[in-house]
Amino acid sequence: MELLYSSCVGLLVACGVFLILRARTFPVVLGLTMLSYAVNLFLFASGRLTMNKAAVLGYSDGYADPLPQALVLTAIVIGFAMTAFVVILAIRGRADLGNDHVNGIEVNTATRNSGSQRKEQGKA
Amino acid sequence: MIQHLTSLPVLLPMLAAIFMLMPPCGKNLRARRIVSVGMGALTTVASVILLLMTREHGTSVYAIGNWSAPFGIVLIADPLSALLVTLTSFLGLVCGLYSCAGDDERGSFFHPLLHFLILGVNGAFLTGDAFNLFVFFEVLLIASYSLLMHGGDKRNTRAALQYVILNLVGSSVFLIALGILYGTLGTLNMADMAQKVTLLQGDDVYLAKIGGLLLLVVFALKGALLPLHLWLPNTYSTAMPVVAALFAIMTKVGVYSMMRVYTLIFGEEAGELSHMAQNWLWWLAIATIVMGAIGVLASQDLRKMVANLVVVSVGTLVALVAVQTVQSSAAAIYYLVHSTLVSAALFLLADLIARQRGKVADRITAGRPVSQPLLLGGAFLVAAVAVIGMPPLSGFVGKVWILRSTLDTPYGNWFWLVYLVASLAILVSVSKAGSTVFWHQTGKGDSEQERAHPAQVCAVMLLVLCTPLMVIFAGPLSEYALLAAQELHDFTGLLQDVLGGVR
Asked: Where is the NADH:quinone oxidoreductase/Mrp antiporter transmembrane domain positioned along the sequence (chain B) (predicted)?
C-alpha cells in the first residue's frame, strides 16, 4: 500500500510541476490543482497509513491519527477557494491580455508562426 | 475581559469586515468609510493596550476555545508579536484613512478587504501554531490578491496573475513542509516542535532538516529574498499605491516567520539541527541587498524605486536574522518598524506626487511642478533622509545599531562593505530622484491642478511624523526592542509560558 500511495503522490507532483512549467494559464491551473491533490494526500500520509482503524480513542486497540485529517480538511477548503480565484483570474487575464500566456506576451516563436499562419488562412 | 485581549487584534478586523458587507453599510460608501476608520482606530487602540500589557506582565498566551497548548491552538502575544501587531493595525488605519480620498471608489469592497488583510497579518504574527500560520497566510494572501486587482488595468492583471500563481505554488510547498515536520515531530505547536526537535534521532533528523529548509523556501518567497524576489518590484509598482503601502508589512510577515522558526524551533537548543539555515540566509541576504541596490539605481520611476528599497530592507533584516544574537535581533526589530513605516510613507508620497504632475506622473524626469511643493517636498525630504539612513532621523539610529551589532560577529566585514556601499547607491539615486522631481521643471504649474485631499495629507503626515518620533523616543523604543529580542531568544521561558507544566 505504501508503494502505491507514494508513487501516486509522486506522479501527481510530477504532472503538476510539468503543467505549471508550461506557463499558459489553463495548464497552470490544472497543474496547481494536481499539486494541491498531491499535497493533500501527502499531508494525510503524515499521520501514518493505517487500515480499518477509527479515530476514536478507547474503543479499539489502535487508532488513526485524527490531526492530519483535520489538516487535510482545512487544506482542501483553502485549496478550493484558491482554485476558484485563479480560474476567474485566468479568464480575466485572457480577456485583458488577449492571450493565455502567463507573461501576457507570446514568447514562443512556434506558436507565433502558427498564429500568423492561421491569420493568413483566414484571409485566404 | 482582560484575558481575551490577546485575541482582539484578530477578532476586531474580522468583525469590522463582516459588518461592512452587511446591510447597514452595504453599498453606502460613507457609512463604510466611517466604520472602516473607526474600527481601524479601535484595533490600533486594542493593539497598543496589548503592547503595554506585554511590557508590564510579559508574554501572554491565549488558548483558543480553552484547549490547552500542545493539542489546541494558541495565540502568543510576546513583546515582538505585540509590537508588530500594533504596527500592522496602525498601518491599516492610515491606509484606510488615505483611501477615503477616493481610492476606495475605484472598485468594490476595498474597506472589507483591507480589514481581512489586517486580520490575516495580525493572526500570522500572533499565532503559536505552525498550521495556523499557514491558514493565516492564506487569509492574508487571498485578501492581497483581491486588493492587488482592485481598480486595476492590463499591466495589473499580468502582475497579479504571476503573483497568485507563485504564491499558490508557495502554499503547496508550505503544506509539504508541514506534512514532513508533523510526520517526524508529531506536533505542530511551535514551542512543542522546538522541544521535540532536540529528541530526534537517526533518519528523522534529515527529514526534519528537509522540512525546515522547505519552510525556508516559503518564507523567502513571502519575504522576497533572492532569488525569489523577482515578483516584488512588478507587483508593488502596479498595485494601487495605497495597497502597495499596505503591502509594506507583508514582506515583514515572511521575515517574522523566519525569526520565529529559525531562532525558536531550529535555534540554539536544537542539537544537530541548530542554526541549520544560517549560512543559506546569510549569503542570500547579502545577495538580496546587492540586487535591491542595483534595482534602486536602475529604477525609472518613483514607485519602482520604493519597491526596490523594500527589497533592500528585506535583505538587511534577513542578514540580521542570520546573525542570531540578541543584539542583532533587537536592531532588526527597530529597523523593521522603521522601514515599514518609511516605505509605506514613500509609496503614498509617490502617489500624491504622481497625481499632481499630470502626464509625467512619477517618472524621474523633468516635468510640470507639483502644486503643493512645500508640503510634498518637505515630506519627501524627511522620508528620503530616513530611508537613506542619514542623521538625525530613525534610519540613522537603525543603521548605527545594525552596524554595531554585526561588528563582532564573523560575518561583520562582508556585511559592513555591502551594506555601506548599498547605502551609498541609495543615497545617490534617492537624492537624484528627489532633485529631479522637485527642482527640474519644465512648464508652469497650473493653479487649478488637483490638490491633495485633507485625508491624504493627514495619512501621509501621520506616517512621515513617525520617523522623527522614533528618534525622540529612541530610548524607550530600543529598550522595548531589546526586551522583545531577549524574549525571542528565551527558549525555556517560552516553553514554560506555552506548555506550562506539560513536558
From this structure: 129-421
